Amino acid sequence: MNPKLIGLGVVVLAAVAVVGGVLASPDDSGSDIDAATTSVVDEDFSTVVVARKDLVETTEIDGTLGFGDPIALPNRSVGVLTYIPEAGTIMSPGDALYEVNEMPVVYLPGEIPAYRTMQDNVEGTDVLQLEEYLDSLGLMEANDATIDGDFTWYTENAVEEWYETMFGVMEQTSVDDGMVIFGTESFRISQVTAQLGGQVNGGSVLSYTSTTRVVTVQLDTALSGILAEGQTVVVELPDESEVNATVMFVSDTVTTEGQGPSATSWIDVELVLEGEGSAFDESPVVIRVDEPVEIDAVVVPIPSLIALAEGGYAVEKLVDGTPVLVAVEIGSFLSNEVSITGAIEPGDTVIVP
Asked: Terminus of the chain with fewer CB atoms < 10 Å: N or C?
């Protein structure tokens, strides 16, 4: 007589009626079954090979791929803009950022901001940063200038040669206030905020971002803790390709927008893509976070479970083509699978009604 299968949720349960034979029961299962019975089944079933695997739950989180929040670049120059770059341009130390009255505003390496005209008899850290850059071009040694933060006649010669060689500007022996902006990293121009031919008087000309592609996330507070700094996750790009990303920043404060029941709260998170990333900018992406539920588990489909009349669960294992009822202990559920322990090993074949 066939077992009568009774559906209960997603688990297939059965009150088992047996007619004789051998029942396989694990030595350590704790089941009350002490006699073994061969189940009589029809041929309306499928089988699956038992596997050992990690049960991993995946959470998908929406994010935006871009270059991070733009920052206005300080400007001290005064005059008419005679050249401005395009958005998306990468600027590195030594590059001319834009031109005011046909004089280049140059980006140079240094941590101390420029704040005055650098000329003969001026000394300080700003001058030292200028001299160190000129030395990297070989101009200090060529003009017998000393790298000491003291702007001398020799430094004037190095500056004059620099302007003439690099920018075609003749007889420029000083670095006027506003004509140099010091910084430490290359950056990407995100937006030009002034117009060619427009007058500038200390106002910002452009905004910039990092050159590194980042994914920004407004993480729902309900998912707090799912992302941590240093964690590696998978990001699915708009073209459905995948790339790894590392969590670089997780805010320790919660941002709330709105009031009452309609209020939303989130935590700001930033991730950096590994490798070159992609050509996408300001594009929606999906971050997939894997969380292990159970590691190295023996797993079967949930529908293969059978509830025993005397309590507990079993699966039907094919032994030499014959279905044998085997008592098992159930563990973790995930999607359509469940982990089990008992006299079932990876490679065994079980029936899925």
From this structure: N
